[in-house]
Amino acid sequence: MYQSLDPALIIATLEKLERRISERFPGSGLSRVSDELTVMARETSAKVAAIAGPNYVMRSVRVVLLIGGALVAYLIWHALKLEASAELTSIVQAIDAATSLLIVCGGLALYLWTLENRWRREQALEALHELRSLIHVIDMHQLTKDPTAFGAPRTSSSPDRTMTPFQLLRYLGYCSELLSLASKVAALFADKIRDPSIVDAVGDIERLTAHLSQKIWQKIELIQERLPTRPASDALAPRVDA
Questions:
Q1: Per the count of CB atoms within 10 A, which of 31, 127, 178, 196 is most buried?
Q2: What tens digit of pLDDT does each residue of 53-71 get?
Q3: pLDDT band for position 163 (50/70/90)?
Q4: Segment 147-155 mean pLDDT
């Protein structure tokens, strides 16, 4: 059970994070983004199962190709058994005239044989592109959350900064968690579909979320430096994760 990702556990974690964000920041844009990511995770779970499963319509094409290839091989084998005669000469001439046609048919056969894999790759990459867009939306929510702006003079175009340092700390923490879970949603494709292009695309998303999360944690470290040190009595109190 620890050798593959469980979509149900990822969705359950996202649902819990969505409740935490809504309770801490009710009606915020981040809570709506969290809800969107949860919906996308549910859709991804069903989509991965559908894409990774066999497509019997496309696989029937492979059966037809195999039958056609077997028929061509039989005809070639039968032609080689013929003795040198006028009949053999006619067959050789026909094969020579049909060489270009066989090349075209071979290309068509290769196209049809790889049709299922290309369809699977296209569907997965399209879903990963949507997930990448949502990741950038998550990043947009933390761009204006600058801890160095506390107490700085405001301009008419300055964003609203009504959060306390503790609230900002939690907000940025939620953004980092959303990015991490988004990468796990993307990893569902690589976990079930062993296609090099899909694995590379998932790796790009994981590197993107790690880079964005690193920037968030730089802000978190700045806020932690500004927060007062907890007294010794508080260090023994149970920690509430919210």
A1: 178
A2: 665 666 666 666 667 666 6
A3: confident
A4: 68
Is 237 inside a domain boundary?
no
Tally of domains in the chain: 2
- Do 144 and 25 belong to one domain? yes
Please give the full DSSP string across 184-218, using - where no structure is assigned: HHHHHHHHH---HHHHHHHHHHHHHHHHHHHHHHH
In terms of pTM, does the model score above 0.90?
A: no
Both 12 and 61 in a single domain? no
- Distinct helix (H) and strand (E) counts, the chain: 9, 0
Say if 239 falls within a structural domain.
no
The widest CA-to-CA distance across the chain, in whole angstroms, is 105
Please enumerate in sequence order all residues whose Cβ is within 8 A of that of 173, keeping only pairs 6 or more positions apart, or say none. 220
- Cα 239 to Cα 9: distance, rounded to the nearest angstrom: 23
Give the range of the structural domain holding residue 88, as residue numbers without chain letter: 56-113
Distance CA 189, CA 186 (A): 6
What is the number of other CB atoms lying within 10 angstroms of the CB of residue 175? 26
Q: Do the domain assignments include residue 133?
A: yes
In a domain? residue 180: yes
Show the tokens assigned to 142. 């933390």
Please tell me whether residues 77 and 171 are part of one structural domain: no
